[in-house]
Amino acid sequence: MKPGYKTTEFWLSAAATIVGLVVTSGVLPEQPDNVWVRLVGGVVAVLAALGYTAARAKVKAAGEE
Protein backbone atom coordinates (compact mmCIF):
# COMPACT_ATOMS: atom_id res chain seq x y z
CA MET A 1 0.00 0.00 0.00
CA LYS A 2 1.37 3.40 -0.98
CA PRO A 3 1.64 6.18 1.58
CA GLY A 4 -1.27 8.61 1.41
CA TYR A 5 0.74 11.57 0.13
CA LYS A 6 1.82 9.57 -2.93
CA THR A 7 -1.72 8.99 -4.18
CA THR A 8 -3.64 10.99 -6.76
CA GLU A 9 -6.61 11.15 -4.43
CA PHE A 10 -4.54 12.98 -1.84
CA TRP A 11 -3.37 15.65 -4.27
CA LEU A 12 -6.83 16.17 -5.79
CA SER A 13 -8.45 16.50 -2.37
CA ALA A 14 -5.65 18.79 -1.19
CA ALA A 15 -6.16 21.02 -4.22
CA ALA A 16 -9.94 21.13 -3.66
CA THR A 17 -9.44 21.92 0.02
CA ILE A 18 -6.97 24.72 -0.72
CA VAL A 19 -9.21 26.27 -3.39
CA GLY A 20 -12.18 26.06 -1.02
CA LEU A 21 -10.23 27.73 1.77
CA VAL A 22 -8.98 30.49 -0.55
CA VAL A 23 -12.54 31.21 -1.68
CA THR A 24 -13.84 31.08 1.88
CA SER A 25 -11.17 33.43 3.20
CA GLY A 26 -12.09 36.10 0.65
CA VAL A 27 -8.60 36.33 -0.86
CA LEU A 28 -10.11 36.40 -4.34
CA PRO A 29 -11.21 39.99 -4.99
CA GLU A 30 -13.90 39.19 -7.59
CA GLN A 31 -16.79 38.78 -5.15
CA PRO A 32 -15.70 39.70 -1.63
CA ASP A 33 -19.22 40.61 -0.48
CA ASN A 34 -20.99 37.47 -1.68
CA VAL A 35 -21.64 35.30 1.38
CA TRP A 36 -22.91 32.38 -0.72
CA VAL A 37 -19.63 32.06 -2.62
CA ARG A 38 -17.73 31.92 0.65
CA LEU A 39 -20.17 29.40 2.10
CA VAL A 40 -19.86 27.12 -0.93
CA GLY A 41 -16.07 27.40 -0.73
CA GLY A 42 -16.15 26.29 2.89
CA VAL A 43 -18.46 23.40 2.14
CA VAL A 44 -16.21 22.26 -0.73
CA ALA A 45 -13.16 22.35 1.54
CA VAL A 46 -14.85 20.34 4.28
CA LEU A 47 -16.35 17.76 1.91
CA ALA A 48 -13.04 17.24 0.11
CA ALA A 49 -11.22 16.66 3.39
CA LEU A 50 -13.90 14.32 4.73
CA GLY A 51 -14.13 12.42 1.46
CA TYR A 52 -10.41 11.79 1.37
CA THR A 53 -10.35 10.75 5.02
CA ALA A 54 -13.19 8.27 4.52
CA ALA A 55 -11.66 6.83 1.35
CA ARG A 56 -8.25 6.43 2.98
CA ALA A 57 -9.77 4.77 6.04
CA LYS A 58 -11.54 2.29 3.78
CA VAL A 59 -8.28 1.48 1.97
CA LYS A 60 -6.42 0.99 5.25
CA ALA A 61 -9.17 -1.22 6.65
CA ALA A 62 -9.09 -3.40 3.53
CA GLY A 63 -5.31 -3.65 3.78
CA GLU A 64 -5.40 -4.91 7.35
CA GLU A 65 -7.54 -7.94 6.54
Describe this structure in words.
This protein has 65 residues and is an all-alpha fold. The protein has one domain (4-24, 31-64). It contains two helices and no strands. The chain has helices at 8-25, 35-64. The model has no long low-confidence stretch (mean pLDDT 83).
Structural class: mainly alpha
User: Total strand count, please?
Assistant: 0
Distance between the termini: 13 Å
What is the helix content?
over 70%
Strand proportion, as a percent range, falls in: under 5%
List SSEs in N-to-C order. Answer: HH
Uncertain residue segments = none
What structural keywords apply?
mainly alpha, elongated, 2 helices, 65 residues
Give the arrangement of secondary structure elements.
Layout: H1 8-25, H2 35-64
Briefly say what this structure is.
Helix content is 74%, strand content 0%.
